[in-house]
């Protein structure tokens, strides 16, 4: 028997892998069907991704309404562009790229409007660096100061838990560029936190304003 018993429960690694493979195969079949114009298949794919896309968009654009608009735009682009997706296994990476692009477009439209970032568990996936940076209020202020491309890279890496190559794939940039964006973004966050700590009164007034 494969696996081991713990507390009377059999844990089977091969069973977990088989289930994962089945889910991947199901997703591949749905993507293939959606590429052929099956609206029902696309609705299943969209419903399975919408919460994740909204969480990412909310972190990137910092506003609930713009996040909702970005998700809608990304899904519309996904439906329209599905025939161009040659590899169904790249559905997730392709969808991440679409949501980032939609968020970028939303950001350009609201360039002069204040950004209010509400954290949704940014430290959950890869908290090694971000977790060391103060509290959520400090992190929110730091995120506001990042360039849009840096914010996207940070959110994909630390919130979604993507590896650097996966971030590069989602952003359609070289791995070195993705690594650089994450590196400089973390440095910028730390600098912002340091500035806040040197001026605690001003930082407090900004939060309560």
| Order of strands, widest sheet | 1-2
Q: Which structural class best describes the helix and strand composition?
A: mainly alpha
Residue fraction in strands: under 5%
Number of helices: 10
Q: How much helix, percentage-wise, in residues? A: over 70%
N- and C-termini, Cα separation: 63 Å
How do the SSEs run, as a string of H and E?
Answer: EEHHHHHHHHHH
CATH architecture of the largest domain: Orthogonal Bundle
Pick out its properties.
Rna Polymerase Sigma Factor, Chain: A, 2 strands, 2 domains, 209 residues, mainly alpha, disordered C terminus, Arc Repressor Mutant, subunit A, 10 helices, two-stranded antiparallel sheet
What does this structure look like?
By secondary structure, the protein is mainly α. The protein folds into two domains: about 1-115, RNA polymerase sigma factor, region 2, helix turn helix motif (Rna Polymerase Sigma Factor, Chain: A), CATH 1.10.1740; about 120-209, Arc Repressor Mutant, subunit A. It contains ten helices and two strands. The chain has helices at about 15-35, 40-60, 65-80, 90-110, 125-130, 135-145, 150-160, 165-170, 175-200, 200-209; strands spanning about 5, 10. Strands 1-2 form a two-stranded antiparallel sheet. A hairpin with a 2-residue loop joins β1 (about 5) and β2. Residues about 5-10, about 110-135 and about 200-209 have low confidence and may be disordered.
How are the secondary structure elements laid out?
Blueprint: E1 4-6, E2 9-11, H1 13-35, H2 39-61, H3 64-81, H4 91-109, H5 127-130, H6 136-144, H7 148-159, H8 164-171, H9 175-198, H10 200-208
Antiparallel strand pairs: 1-2
